[in-house]
Structures are given as C-alpha cells and as structure tokens.
Amino acid sequence: MKKITKTDLAAFGENTRLVVGGRDPAAQHGFVNPPVYHGSTVLAPTVKDLIGRTQKYVYGRRGTPTSEALEEALAAVEGAAGVVLCPSGLSAVTTALLSCLSAGDHLLMTDSAYGPTRHACDAVLGRFGIETTYYDPRIGGDIAGLMRPNTRAVYLESPGSLTFEVQDVPAIAAAAHARGATVLLDNTWATPLFFKAHAHGVDLAIQAGTKYIVGHSDAMFGTISAAASAWPRLKAFHGDTGLCAGPDDIYLAMRGLRSMGVRLRQHQESGLAVARWLAARSEVQRVLHPALPGDPGHALWQRDFTGASGLFALVLTPAPEAAVEAFLDGLKLFGLGYSWGGFESLAIPFDASPYRTASAWNPGGPCVRLHIGLEDVADLIRDLEEGLERFRRAS
C-alpha cells in the first residue's frame, strides 16, 4: 500500500478519509494501525540537533507519531488548516476560547450553550477580565447589533445543547467577520460529517471527541480544528499551556474515527425512527429534533446540514416529578447517565430554564433528553412504550 498524501486525501470521499487519513503502514513494518508511543523524552543524536530542535519530534508533549496520525486524519475530515487534541471536550472549549481572547475582550456566547461552557465563561473567563454576553440562539445576522468595539469572538452551538435550536451559522459568521471577530462553533452533535463548519464560515470548530469520535464511552477527548486565519494562535496557545492528550486515549479516538461514518448513519436512522414514534404519542407534547419537518429549526437544518445524529429531546405532557421518575427509572435499555455518543442508549431529565438569560425557555412540561444508541429500534421503542405507560399511570 502506497503512502496516502494530503493531495490524495483531498480527492477522496469523506468515508475514505476516515479510513485512510493519518495512516502509513510502510513506515510501521506493514501494520495497519499506527503504534501507540508512550514517551516524554526524545533523544537527539548531537548537541546541535538537541539545541537546534532539528528533529521532527523533540518532546512527547509537543507531538508523537501517534498524535500526528490522528491530527492529520481529523484535519482531512474537517477541511482544516490544522487540528489540536485535548484531554476532554470542555478543555477543547476553553482552549479554543482562550486562544482568541485576552483581558478586556468581549465574548458573545449563545444562550443555548452546553452548561459547563457557560460555567467556564462565568467562573473562569470573568476572572481574567473577559466579559461574556449571552444572545438568543435564533438571532441570526441581527447579532451585528450586539457587537462592540472589543468583541473578539462569537461562540455558537448548533443545535443547542438540550434544547436543539439550530443557528444560522453563515449569517452570524458574516456579521462577526465584518467586525473582525473570531467565530467558534461546538460541532459535537453533527460532527464534520454532517456539518461542514469551516465551509460555513467557522474559524475554530470544537468537538467533544468523547462522544462520536471515540464512540464507545471509554475515553475522554476533545478536538479543535482551525481555519488558516486562526491556526497559528491556536497552535501556539495549545503548546504554551502544556496541553496534550494521553497516547492511549488518542489511540481509542483513532480507532473510533475509522468507524464513525457507519455508526453515525445508524444513529441517524434509529434516532429518527424513535423520534417519529414519540411524536405520535399522546404523552409527548413535542419532540425537539431539527430533522423533523415540524421543528422550528428544520429549514436551517435542511439548508446547512447533511445528516442528524442520535441525540434529541422531548417535552412530556404536564406531570409531577414522580411520573417522570416512573418513566425513566424502569427503563431497561436506556441508561441514566451523562455524556452520549457511545453505542448505548441514554436518557436524562432536564430543565434548561435556570440557565437561560437571553432567551426564554418555557416548554410547558417536563423534558427528557435521549441518545439513541445502536440497539434494535423495535427493542428501544418497546422500552419507551412501557416507560410512557408508567408515566401515564403516575400522572
């Protein structure tokens, strides 16, 4: 097998890029997968090489063949100038933000952001003299009215965490770029397979790789891909702050990446089947899933996205907390746990209203977020049907 060049990768389809990106079997005695390098020290042959840093690798934290392989593969899939790896999704969020913000700067943050992202803005960025203003995720190009002279970054998450609002990324990006601001997007839900972040104007695209990249609920991981304009500052900040992911986690992420395409297509198919079934149930007021035609964000999703993942939410009819507990506690196939993106189905109850400050969240009933895993759809629906019957009896 000949070495795949970057020119080759650019000509391949995305599923081929997932499989061959970062691979060089000829350099690894014919082994298909790159080796896992556990190491800190890299020996130099001479003093001149040591001082002059003439070698490709100089220290484990600054890169190894293992990390480079995944970075190259992800850059090819993302269409990015470069990618850095982080030890968690939240560390990717904070690294991306701090790479483009300084004391005295102003950040515009979507009101629908992941809860720990909001906490990082309020508890961490604030300590460094960075002010955050939250905005309605459906603001679109009108975000120009919130821009200040010191607005240096605009952060999006589409669809929104828990509540699944779809943002008009190109319109927001255009308004931000007109004022010289960097555009960041949490693209974990769609991944670059279903939403091409950089092609839609995003400078820094973030993924909680813990979810669909790793895909097996067995590693914490984060990635940031950068457009050419944002790459030098991101690369410098990532290195200057000593961030690095462990080699075993990188290997697990690489293993997951190879099958992400087929897994995502199955998550999409199963997720839509379950969402449509739930939408017809009398116990469900509405399903929050942008790929459903009745969803408020469906038109934007249809315009900009090429697929949907397995994560969505539902609003139940008004009922006491005990009814929601009866629904969820008796589930056999849906685990009650945080995170998502693995092979297993998950469920959590949530109330987004305490976290919203720029937009109202009044769903009219208790809310549940579901991640649809890789189990048989008929089994998942049967499990949910029994749960909704318990919910009805306890209401």
Written overview of the protein:
The protein has helices at 6-11, 14-20, 47-52, 65-78, 89-100, 115-124, 169-178, 191-194, 231-240, 247-258, 260-279, 298-304, 321-329, 377-394, and strands at 82-86, 106-110, 131-135, 151-157, 182-186, 204-207, 222-226, 284-288, 311-316, 334-336, 345-350, 367-371. With 395 residues, it is α/β, with parallel strands linked by helices. It has 2 domains: 6-258, Aspartate Aminotransferase, domain 2, CATH 3.40.640.10; 260-394, Aspartate Aminotransferase, domain 1, CATH 3.90.1150. The strands form 2 sheets. Strands 1-7-6-5-4-2-3 form a 7-stranded mixed sheet, sandwiched between helices. A 5-stranded mixed sheet has the order 8-9-12-11-10, with helices on one face. α6 links the parallel β2 (106-110) and β3. α2 (14-20) packs antiparallel against α4 (65-78) and α5 crosses α9. The chain starts with 5 loop residues before the first helix and ends with a helix. The mean pLDDT is 95. It holds the Pfam family Cys_Met_Meta_PP.
Name the descriptors.
395 residues; alpha/beta; Aspartate Aminotransferase, domain 2; Aspartate Aminotransferase, domain 1; 37% helix
Secondary structure category: alpha/beta
N-to-C SSE series? HHHHEHEHEEHEHEEHHHEHEHEEEH
Helix content: 25-40%
Share of residues in strands: 15-25%
> What is the CATH level 1 assignment of the largest domain?
Alpha Beta
Number of helices: 14
Strand tally: 12
Enzyme class: lyase
Cofactor: pyridoxal 5'-phosphate
InterPro entries: Cys/Met-Metab_PyrdxlP-dep_enz (IPR000277), Cys_b_lyase_bac (IPR006233), Cys_met_metab_PP (IPR054542), PyrdxlP-dep_Trfase (IPR015424), PyrdxlP-dep_Trfase_major (IPR015421), PyrdxlP-dep_Trfase_small (IPR015422)
Pathway: Amino-acid biosynthesis; L-methionine biosynthesis via de novo pathway; L-homocysteine from L-cystathionine: step 1/1
